[in-house]
Amino acid sequence: MREVGNRPGEAAALNNIALVYRATGQLDQAMALYEQALSIRHDVGDRAGEAITLNNIGELYTEIGQPQRALEICEKALSLTRQVGDRASEATILYNMASLLFRQLDQTEDAIVYVEKAITVMQETGLSHDAAGDTLEDLQQTLDFMRTGASL
Questions:
Q1: Which of 12, 50, 65, 117 has the most beta carbons within 10 angstroms of its beta carbon?
Q2: CA-to-CA separations, 24 to 18, 19, 29, 49, 101, in angstroms, rounded
Q3: Any idea of the CA torsion for 62, 67, 73, 78, to the nearest 10 degrees?
Q4: Residue 121: enclosing H or E segment and its boundaries?
Q5: What distance in Å separates the CA atoms of residue 58 and residue 55, rounded to the nearest whole number?
Q6: What pLDDT was estimated at residue 150?
Q7: What are the DSSP calls for 4-34, one per residue?
């Protein structure tokens, strides 16, 4: 991608390589690649791509035990997805934020609100699944767990 000057492709590749590093526990390397991808996506005006990378960075911050920072990053990602009208990613980010609020920050009421918003997005749009592949039934099941106080 670099050789042919395809900056959006380079950013996508960096983001995907970062996912592999994250999956193999090499979190510092993953973060460095996410940051490179984010910078390129910002430079080329790929707002949807920025949101995806920000969401991934938020998930990484969750993994390293910085849930408040993760939430801040996810809020930026959510804003971008709404600006570009990417409803599937919006549902994913809302769902991720709900999980973070519930599991990491013990904010069950807020978490429930975010899952309900994700469900609403999917219902309004008729999406069969969000950008991460979660179905409406998955979200509804999570909501039921949260409402009953069960752990996920």
A1: 50
A2: 10, 9, 10, 23, 25
A3: 90
A4: helix 108-125
A5: 5
A6: 58
A7: TT-HHHHHHHHHHHHHHHHHTT-HHHHHHHH
Helix/strand/coil for 101:
helix
Domain 67-148 falls in which CATH fold?
A: 1.25.40
Do 13 and 50 contact (CB within 8 A), yes or no? no
Give the pair of three-digit tokens for residue 143: 């909501």
Structure tokens that stand for 45 in this block: 């005006």
Q: How confident is the model at residue 149 (pLDDT cuts 50, 70, 90)?
A: confident
Strand pairing partners for 135? Answer: 129
Q: Record the tokens describing residue 17, joined without a space.
A: 């390589």
What is the distance of C-alpha 144 from the center of its chain? 22
- Integer Cα distance of 101 and 123 in angstroms: 22
Q: Are 152 and 99 in contact (CB under 8 A)?
A: yes
Calculate Rg over the CA atoms of the chain.
16
pTM of the predicted model, to two decimals?
0.89
- Mapped onto helix, strand or coil, the DSSP state of residue 66 is coil
Tokens of 89: 């990613």
